[in-house]
Specification:
Strand order of the largest sheet: 3-4-7-5-6
Oligomer: single chain
Number of strands: 7
Largest sheet: 5 strands, mixed
CATH architecture of the domain at 84-179: 2-Layer Sandwich
Shape: flat
Helix content: 25-40%
CATH topology of the domain at 84-179: Ribosomal Protein S5, domain 2
Strand content: 15-25%
Number of helices: 7
Order of helices and strands: HEEHHEEEEHHEHH
């Protein structure tokens, strides 16, 4: 009995603020004002806004920087320069501009070593005319190349550099011609023929 009376007294000590509505068997409790409660208008229109900035890859940043560098070195573009030469090989065409410098080579606004994939033979092609005349550290090379593959473009640059060096001095013709650097290499891939697998390769002969 003592436990029942203690329970009854504890329940009586609790106070509830309740309002009995007109509907039977329903009790409504008033909401307490919360500290984090939003106003009615802002609660409806509340939305999460996220702003994110995507940084450009490092390769694109390098290209942008090299573009600014080339434009600063070549005011007016390639066509406005004096020491310029055009080289061709297979389907590749390269426009080459020479300027006094330290031997830097930039192809299509990229470093030559990166553009030519670090291939030592192709990198050697580019500097052969300068090495022949002993100018490997005296001129910077700026190139716009398109068409063909990297091998054809590298050889087209060689021809373009040799032609540009003729505009530096007419005395360069003799040593460059001696090395065969002023001759256009007209060799191209022979076209495929009808009835053959390639230009000259025929299908295997079958007697029956």
């Amino acid at each position: 009995m003592a436990s029942i009376t203690n329970l009854a007294s504890s329940l009586s000590s609790l106070s509830f603020s309740s309002q009995v509505s007109q509907r039977p068997n329903t009790i409504s409790f008033p909401r307490a004002n919360s500290v984090f409660a939003l106003p009615a208008k802002s609660a409806r229109r509340a939305s999460l806004s996220i702003t994110a900035t995507v940084s450009a890859p490092p390769e694109e940043e390098e290209i942008v920087e090299l573009k600014k560098y080339v434009k600063s070195r070549l005011p007016g573009g390639f066509a406005a320069q004096k020491i310029i030469g055009t080289g061709r090989r297979k389907c590749a065409i390269a426009r080459v501009v020479l300027q006094e410098g330290t031997g830097k080579v930039i192809i299509n606004y990229r470093d030559a070593k990166e553009y030519l994939q670090g291939n030592p033979l192709w990198l050697q092609y580019v500097k052969v005319p300068l090495v022949t005349l002993g100018y490997e550290n005296s001129y910077d090379i700026f190139v716009k190349a398109h068409g063909g593959g990297l091998s054809g473009q590298a050889q087209a640059i060689t021809f373009g550099v040799a032609r540009a060096l003729l505009k530096v001095s007419a005395d360069h013709r003799s040593p460059l011609k001696k090395e065969g650097l002023l001759t256009r290499d007209a060799r191209v891939v022979e076209r495929k023929k009808a009835g053959l697998k390639k230009a000259r390769k025929a299908p295997q002969f079958s007697k029956r």
